[in-house]
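Folding Problem: From Residues to Backbone Shape
Fields: amino acid sequence; protein backbone structure tokens
RECORD BEGINS BELOW THIS LINE
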Amino acid sequence: MSTVGEESPHPPSLRVCMLLHKDVSHDTRVRREAAALAGAGHEVTVVHLPPPDARPEPDELGFGLVPATLRRGRQRLPHAVRLGIEAARLGGRSAGTRPDVIHAHDAAMLLPGLLAARLSGARLVYDSHELATGVPYRRGAWPKVVAATERLGAPRTDAVIAVSDGIATRLNGLYRLRRAATVIRNLPDLPPPGAAPAPDLRRELGVGDAPLVLHQGAVAPGRGGEVLLQALALLPEAQLLFLGAEGAHADALRERSRTLGAAERTHFLEPVAPSALLSHTCQADVGVSLLQDSCENHRLALPNKLFEYLAAGLPVVVSELPEMARLVRERGIGWCANPAEPASVAAALHEALARSGDEEVRARVTRAAAELNWQREKERLLELYAELGEGAGVSAGAGR
């Protein structure tokens, strides 16, 4: 107990090692969390799998990077064998950082995280970026492997992190966790609109003052692009922009827009740099997130783009799914639609566009953006690590 005049002791700083089964360059959640922990005084290293020919990232990241990519003979190995070898390398190199905490990102890193924690005596945090057992695109034996991995690993962790309240509740129910899952949402940490130059999108697209609907981020099956195009066909006054759409599915949507007679009102742009994202986004009238009700993960998801729209000042139209619909209705920041019915989506978009200048709606969006951002959300992460540090009772590297 501190005496009068003495400052209360700060939680000890920790040596944190994060495991990631891909290149950290393109994972904004991992980068945000690593930077937040480093900024709070923890020593953070990310062990990841960059491409064999990747260039080193600049030193000003604030956290260290350790590659675990298998460089020699990788092309000669069966895919499953290479994955196993790289998983072992991730675990071994993580243990080699002499961590106090192993932070395993996603289900693929749970077993390597367990290995590293056992080898090093570190605490283990499991950061679930989705409901891994509720994702539909895993085929063959993978769903069973993922379920078995979580059943084995999740109860043995010291903390579990989830990206929504629904996923946290589901994980709490599935496994006997030592402590209830902590919710840390994917909230943006981006420069505000106008902080970086952006082209005049309306001029560039040739849409003038027409109502502009925005779908931001990658397009893929199950994300509502097809239904959105069918809804656009029912809104002859509106224009639609897919920002960040590329690949085979984007090509399929282009073709579908032609068959619907909406090609002249449908636009596609490549992804833009994070520093300029909101400067692009704010030029639309409404943002759309239309995950289909095709899996439990979608039903419990809170997509990044939803919060990015709010940060750019846009009201939203979202799927009538539990997590998204609750957020939108509680805060009065948009409209919900049945993601399987184009007419329902068109009706929601029509109302959203009709009220795009509504000062009351805009004020609620502004208030939501002021609260739903990374500067506030990261406090949940820092509080969790403060508790882990107090429980460990050691500073980084102590007693090693």
